[in-house]
Design brief:
With about 230 residues, the protein is of the alpha/beta class. The chain has eight helices and twelve strands. The chain folds into two domains: about 5-125, Rossmann fold; about 130-225, Arc Repressor Mutant, subunit A, CATH 1.10.10.10. It has helices spanning about 10-25, 35-45, 60-70, 90-95, 110-125, 155-170, 175-185, 195-205, and strands at about 5-10, 30, 50-55, 80-85, 100-105, 130-135, 135-140, 145-150, 150-155, 175, 215-220, 220-225. It binds calcium ion (CA).
């Protein structure tokens, strides 16, 4: 399950160690040495996971985690806090700030990779290879197939990713910006109109089985995939 991981760590040796291990595990790594640099990076590309050091120069990791949680665009990014602190009170503060998990330094790279995998499986099902089924529609990321009952449906690659994301997050309203971030990985240079074009194509591909009705337009907000047909 390769992911884009943002590592926010001010100590160069630790940052390097983390990055090497994550890249070795097949992930793409973005590196920031403080919250300010991380904020700039997140503004451009939404990472799949943030690995965040607690003790940073300037704004603390804890404050940065809170800021990510307050912003609609970034509130769902899984966050793993990295810290030398290990007391119960610190763990609670970290989890209350919106962190999904907590790793205490020193940690083994293998443990870190395993924790990331667990968080991704829990929070970002669209990155896994698990087949999903909603309202009689079945999507298998492993074989890249979409079927309704026993009939295969023919989808383009973008429509496939779009459907995969929406099926793993049913009933939620996604703005065009969120869909661009999640499906295209870019909300800056791709026009919002692009989303509408691909939603239209997706509906057309789902028409033969009547599953186009699952894709609902939420006026003024975006799109939603209904959990039942
Ligand atoms: Ca530090």
């Amino acid at each position: 399950m390769p992911a884009n991981i943002l590592v926010v760590e001010d100590e160069p040796a630790i940052q390097e160690l983390i990055a090497i291990n994550l890249e070795y595990a097949g992930h793409s790594v973005l590196r920031a040495h403080d919250a300010e640099q991380a904020t700039q990076m997140v503004r451009e590309v939404l990472p799949d996971v943030v690995l965040l050091d607690w003790m940073l120069p300037g704004q603390s990791g804890l404050a940065f985690a809170r800021r990510l949680r307050e912003d609609e665009r970034t509130r769902d990014i899984p966050i793993i806090m990295l810290t030398a602190r290990g007391t119960e009170a610190d763990k609670i503060a970290g989890l209350e700030s919106g962190a999904d998990d907590y790793i205490t330094k020193p940690f083994s790279p293998r443990e870190m990779v395993a924790r990331i995998k667990a968080v991704l499986r829990r929070r970002s099902p669209q990155l896994t290879e698990e087949p999903v089924e909603v309202g009689g529609l079945r999507l298998d990321p492993g074989t890249h197939r979409v079927s309704a009952d026993s009939a295969q449906l023919d989808l383009g690659p973008t429509e496939f990713r779009l459907l995969h994301f929406m099926m793993t997050h049913p009933e939620r309203v996604h703005s065009r910006t969120q869909l661009l971030d999640q499906v295209w990985g870019d909300h800056v240079f791709v026009e919002e109109r692009t989303v509408d074009v691909h939603i239209r194509r997706l509906r057309k591909s789902l028409e033969p089985s009547g599953h186009d009705r699952l894709i609902q337009t939420v006026r003024g907000s975006g799109y939603r995939l209904a959990a039942t047909n």
